[in-house]
Amino acid sequence: MPRRYAGSCVKIVKKEDETMEGRRIYSINELTLILKVTQHTLYKYIKNGDLKARKIGKYWRVLPSDLETFLNEGTRCSRL
Predict the structure, then answer these.
(1) Which domain CATH number covers 34?
(2) Domain count along the chain
(3) pTM summary value
(4) pLDDT category of residue 4 using cuts at 50, 70 and 90
């Protein structure tokens, strides 16, 4: 059953649904909860090239390695 977090609906998935052939892929909704930022902010990071993401169908996805790089390097504004 979906749970409500900060005005958005997030589906709690089982462990086997979280991976695709052993690889974890984050959705934008998951990243809003992890990073405590809005979807608009995440889309801005993607558009600016700060956060590397892939569009699969109509949804954006982020690999753990890309999230780790983003967390280590920060945004362009924080690099100045």
Answers:
(1) 1.10.1660
(2) 1
(3) 0.67
(4) low
